[in-house]
């Protein structure tokens, strides 16, 4: 057994240390042997020391052992005559080994013992380094690492995703969480062990009870003290409300000293961020497909109409057809506005704020060509947590929808509500002094029948509604009307309600259509899950 290379040394102390050091130097290849006459300086020595040999001398072994104690438990071999130092006394004093200096072939025996001691010291150091490295992997690396035995029971679990790994030791995943996902995980563990086959990069949902353990958020909290202020953090805007976390899992067999499968080693990585990116890209691709479909089909129809009537103007010289051309161009303009809304808006809300809903409803009403319609704000609406621009767009589309599908009867409602005047046919707002009076006697105009649009808060949950007293929407059609391009009005583009749903979902709200609570019937759009709806202290009159 020969040590080929080492950064450490063997120190020989006491007299005659030079003689013993020279003898060891001739017998041990690859080890540096140094003679030290002043043992009291051993504790301040720097660098690696593999062994200390105590040669013949008067100093007690316990004194030398105490002097070398700061050197990280360096082994001490005593090389003294048996008449001067009894082996048992030397061992009791803290020596690692004793070689009688007066025995046959004593120096050769000493060299063999020192070499074995140094060899053992190196093995212990390598094991300690391997253990420290393994500890660092399980305690610091931001991955969920685990080792399981042949029955799928945890033997070791990383600290990155749990503050108490001990609660997993000796338990299978199914023992920890009784669920279908855990049962499948346990089945995978058994497959790896029994078939001696790895499972690589398996995409799995996070078990509900494990979500915090596997989430990127929890991992960032775990390393919060070690992260700088400018360290990258998870983009919460990527995740939709109620998203399920996703992980990639790999498991490989591990073997005992006989080469038999003893269990498995696994690593699970949170890929929720990547899944969120993928979902966002899929949504964007769908919007691009919608955009291409509309550009290639919906815009082509009014463009063909305009082109046809323009040809008639050229052929007949009659300018009457230009009105039809203008109508077609107006239709194209409406379609472009809706297409851009769908393409740009998507499902992302960047900077929500507390928005006073009462004021926003009135402002949105003023921008819509409402013909002879009337707006009633039922009670105070308070404030909602929303993107003001996109919420205004939602309201404008709902108001247009109500007017385009207005009722066939001239009627309004009474009640404790705030009323706002209808917009004239030319699209300009009525004078301010005409917008606060009662509307029950307002006649219908030649532009269309009178329709009442009401906006109020939901009574039984957080949210608000927009209702009208028009013909309503049959229950079988209430989901379909939110699809792109679906409209029953010759004036509609078929995008309005699709935009409404998309904006609602971007805020994390749900929208549903029910029958309006009026004698005249109509449709009522209810928006639930609206955040921070607070009642206003001022009632508008």
TrEMBL record:
<dbReference type="Pfam" id="PF02518">
    <property type="entry name" value="HATPase_c"/>
</dbReference>
<protein>
    <recommendedName>
        <fullName>histidine kinase</fullName>
        <ecNumber>2.7.13.3</ecNumber>
    </recommendedName>
</protein>
<feature type="compositionally biased region" description="Basic and acidic residues">
    <location>
        <begin position="413"/>
        <end position="431"/>
    </location>
</feature>
<keyword id="KW-0597">Phosphoprotein</keyword>
<feature type="region of interest" description="Disordered">
    <location>
        <begin position="404"/>
        <end position="451"/>
    </location>
</feature>
<dbReference type="InterPro" id="IPR005467">
    <property type="entry name" value="His_kinase_dom"/>
</dbReference>
<keyword id="KW-0418">Kinase</keyword>
<dbReference type="InterPro" id="IPR013656">
    <property type="entry name" value="PAS_4"/>
</dbReference>
<dbReference type="InterPro" id="IPR003661">
    <property type="entry name" value="HisK_dim/P_dom"/>
</dbReference>
<feature type="compositionally biased region" description="Basic and acidic residues">
    <location>
        <begin position="439"/>
        <end position="451"/>
    </location>
</feature>
<keyword id="KW-0902">Two-component regulatory system</keyword>
<dbReference type="InterPro" id="IPR050736">
    <property type="entry name" value="Sensor_HK_Regulatory"/>
</dbReference>
<dbReference type="InterPro" id="IPR036097">
    <property type="entry name" value="HisK_dim/P_sf"/>
</dbReference>
<dbReference type="Pfam" id="PF08448">
    <property type="entry name" value="PAS_4"/>
</dbReference>
<dbReference type="InterPro" id="IPR004358">
    <property type="entry name" value="Sig_transdc_His_kin-like_C"/>
</dbReference>
<dbReference type="InterPro" id="IPR035965">
    <property type="entry name" value="PAS-like_dom_sf"/>
</dbReference>
<dbReference type="Pfam" id="PF00512">
    <property type="entry name" value="HisKA"/>
</dbReference>
<feature type="domain" description="PAC">
    <location>
        <begin position="227"/>
        <end position="283"/>
    </location>
</feature>
<dbReference type="GO" id="GO:0000155">
    <property type="term" value="F:phosphorelay sensor kinase activity"/>
</dbReference>
<keyword id="KW-0808">Transferase</keyword>
<dbReference type="InterPro" id="IPR003594">
    <property type="entry name" value="HATPase_dom"/>
</dbReference>
<feature type="domain" description="Histidine kinase">
    <location>
        <begin position="294"/>
        <end position="527"/>
    </location>
</feature>
<dbReference type="InterPro" id="IPR036890">
    <property type="entry name" value="HATPase_C_sf"/>
</dbReference>
<dbReference type="InterPro" id="IPR000700">
    <property type="entry name" value="PAS-assoc_C"/>
</dbReference>
